Amino acid sequence: MLYGTPGWVTPEIAIVGRADMPLYVLINDEAATLVEGGLSGMTELVWRQINALMSDFGGIRHLRYWVITHSHYDHCSLLMTLKSRMPWLHVVGSPGTADALQSESACRTIVRLDAMASRAFAAPFDGALCPLADIPLHPIKAGNVLDIGAGMQLLAIALPGHSVCQSGYYCPQLDLLFASDALGEYQGPGRWLPLVFHDLAAYRHSLDVVEARHAARIALGHHGILAWEWARHAARQARSALDQFEEEARRTRADEHATLALARQWTERHSQPSASVVPADLHLKSMQRMIGLFHACRH
Ligand SMILES: [Zn+2]
To answer: Rounded to whole angstroms, how far apart are CA atoms 122 and 183?
Structure first.
């Protein structure tokens, strides 16, 4: 089962943003937590949605934590527009994410790609962006736990491979794992596009970590929350997709033309689900990067 539509999933879990670019809200009597960080083009949409959700809990100040899974532009850009409206929020993420958001060149890339992707939204944000480096991000190391109120906790779990800084977060009380992009992009029942953009061995290890957690619900970086059987089988399916893509990539090793043709083919076949927020040339570049990582790995 996939919960992809913005709105309540359970009395404690809600989806905001848009199905392809979701943010998640965990709510209890004491506090609420926002997970993921979207695109600046979603600013007014998400602002409206979280205010509506919080209205039954005494208002927007019920939100207390904002968890950032990794430093890619489509997972942190709302910090630049919404954090200043909620100065009381405690922003947390991995130490690697904190480092990346202090890097001038990384932040320049985030701002550039966010601006491009945000054009897909009806009302692009036209105010001044707060520099990411000016937003305090409190690092949580893997293995540490964040208390999010009323006895609810989030355990930080390193899930590198997609990016060097990616962390997942597991809430035992809800048996819910925020896996972000660790499994790749969900493309329909049983179908996955691997998103190996940093390290193949680490990516495989992260799939094992997700599988071993055996969570009843997995909140994805895109397209929503997988539940029950769909969540239990997700890592295995993502691994078999990874094996197939790796095999295809290996056949083009040392052949520049075949490599480019394969990257184009993958973009043609698999870019549609993210087409509104990932420009085609960026999708192609990321497929080329992934093929390069497949080629570089010898075993
Ligand atoms: Zn990502």
So the answer is: 30
